[in-house]
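User: Fold this, then the next.

Assistant: Folding the first:
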Amino acid sequence: MRKILNTAHLYMIIGVVSGLYYRELTKAKDFTGDTQLAVVHTHVLALGMLFFLIVLALEKLFTLTTTPLFTWFFWIYNAGLAVTVAMMTLHGTLTVLGHDSGEAVAMAAGLGHILLTAGLVLLFVTLGKRLPAAPGKGTGPAPSSQPVTREHVTDTP
């Protein structure tokens, strides 16, 4: 659980620093146009900090880390988020500096999104393995086949 909390904390720091970087770089270059730097801050805070705080709550409820797939989810999702955020930052910085980012940055960003998607799929598979089975799916006691009679019902005023 500590690793999940530390991950959320790290993303909080990166999110705050990325907001500062955006503000200071655009101010230093007198840039007023659109740039992806404007959304790096919110992406890191939402997909990093908030997401891992939710995973922390899910870990508390369902002990997700006991499933080997959780480790795969953790590293693949983090790799995807790191690549995506790095490419957004690079593209945004190049935009502010007046340069074209090129196709390689777009391809790397696409790879980051693919890794994020794979990580999310692994999280849902992990969560599905840790949730208790639904009633009536052969895992719980069979429902009573006796009819309800007056003896089984109590009257309350």
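Now the next one, as you asked:
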Amino acid sequence: MSIWWSLHLRREAASVPLARRFLLGTMETAGVDPDISFDLSVALTEACANAVEHGGDHKVQEEQSVGRDPWDVWDELPGRASGQYRVTAYLDGEKCRIEVADSGPGFPARRTLRTSAQRHDPPQYPPLGAEDGRGLCLIEQLADHVHFGNRPGRGAVVSFDKVLKWRKDALLMVS
């Protein structure tokens, strides 16, 4: 059996725990092993936090909102950075794939697909004094396959997957 869902969230800090709780609830209900669920939820938290922080220009958003309904997140002006991001999760058979997409400037060209087979290469960690950049490294460590990509003129996409383990009482155990 397969499950998939997609959330369109505002680029606000409060959306990050909402996405994490939604994923954890889905995985608990399906019967996924709690350790796997935890790893994926931490990776999702980091990807969502990245989308909130870097997924568009906050100042542009404030200027756009003058005279507009602040609750109408779908009413975006063409050619402007979006005030939202999308989280999609697929639980299919033995694998869970999660994708977080925003409409910010995207990733620098050095970010590429990293798989568990490539982890023998020296990891590229941020400097110890760096203010940011650790979240992407966490995602790489917690997931089996990771892809950091750009949608031309439309923002960044982080997708990652992990092989699932199931509890003995799982409702959706792989047959």
